[in-house]
Specification:
Layout: E1 10-19, E2 22-32, E3 37-41, H1 48-55, E4 63-68, E5 71-72, H2 78-84, E6 85-88, H3 100-106, H4 119-132, H5 148-161, E7 166-170, H6 178-194, E8 198-202, H7 206-212, E9 215-220, E10 223-228, H8 230-233, H9 236-243, E11 247-251, E12 258-262
Parallel strand pairs: 3-8, 3-9, 6-7, 7-8
Antiparallel strand pairs: 1-2, 1-4, 4-5, 9-10, 11-12
Helix pairs in contact: 3-5, 4-5
The structure holds adenosine-5'-diphosphate (ADP) and magnesium ion.
């Protein structure tokens, strides 16, 4: 049916999504393979965040099913889900006065409880998360005193501190300068290549999606309109159909992935 040899790590089948009297998606299907980086792209309002929130169990689907390793999410406890899957929401607001270290520590909560004797490992996980996002020096600052980019990296660190196999990141590079955008993309690629993670992320920069991701899923009006390897997705026709831009596509000279230049 899905064409996958192995059970997808995360799968949505016939999802219906919406808010009160607003329907966003009907009959959405997506299967994520373990160990891959998937980019969700599409114009504003196309339903990317809605899908990510449903996959993270933040938003209850109206119908359909989400499966983690083949088991429906609704048959798992929320703590069990939180140990497997972390989400970086698009708009995340920290309580006033909260310090960077405290916010990152919240990523550890699903892991504490009965295992609180493992305190040393919590410190290690927080240290690793903060060091790989370059925010160790900000540990004692309050989150509301940070720049947009520093704050964004703090939220990413919180998601990383959760040490889940699956990371769902909604526009992780927004607010970041180019240097930090590249750092985040390279961190994601490293997490997937060397630390067994699976990542689904919403990206606005299609060239970045093409360069760093294994797969691009393009949405428009709540529907998945294209899904595949960047070379099959970043084409002039798709750019026109999905994003309403006329563009040329060339091979990027560094890694040979497709890259578009608007006309
Ligand atoms: N909390 C909400 N209540 C009502 N409508 C919403 C809410 N969040 C998003 N929407 C609507 O759902 C649609 C999809 O939004 P969203 O998933 O945020 O799109 P994207 O992330 O692709 O920009 C949009 O029309 C948006 O206005
Ligand atoms: Mg969004």
């Amino acid at each position: 049916m899905t064409g996958y040899v192995t059970t997808p790590i995360l799968e949505a089948v016939d999802l219906g999504l919406g808010y009160r009297n607003r329907t966003v998606s009907e009959h959405l299907d997506i299967a994520i393979e373990k160990g891959t980086v998937t980019a969700l792209v599409g114009p504003n309002g196309s339903g990317k965040s809605t899908l990510l929130m449903a996959l993270a169990r933040v938003l209850a689907p109206r119908h359909g099913q989400i499966r983690l390793d083949g088991t429906p999410l609704r048959d798992r406890s929320s703590i069990e889900t939180a140990r497997r899957l972390a989400i970086l929401p698009q708009t995340a607001i920290a309580p006033q006065g909260l310090r960077v270290r405290e916010l990152v520590e919240q990523g550890r909560y699903p892991r504490l409880g009965a295992l609180s004797m493992l305190r040393r490992h919590d410190d290690e996980a927080m240290h690793t998360a903060m060091s790989s996002t370059g925010i160790l020096h900000l540990a004692d600052r309050t989150v509301d005193s940070l720049s947009g980019g520093e704050r964004q990296r703090t939220w990413i660190a919180m998601a990383l501190a959760q040490e889940t196999e699956i990371l769902l990141l909604d526009e992780p590079t927004t607010y970041l300068d180019v240097r930090h955008q590249i750092d985040v993309m390279e961190l994601v690629v490293d997490l997937v290549a060397n630390r067994g993670k699976t990542v689904v992320m919403v990206l606005h920069d299609l060239n970045q999606a093409a360069r760093y991701c294994d797969r691009i899923v393009a949405m428009r009006d709540g529907v998945i309109v294209a899904d595949g390897h960047p070379r099959d997705i970043v084409t002039p026709t798709l750019l026109e159909d999905v994003f309403e831009i006329r563009a040329r596509v060339v091979a990027d000279p560094v890694v040979g992935r497709p890259m578009f230049i608007a006309e």
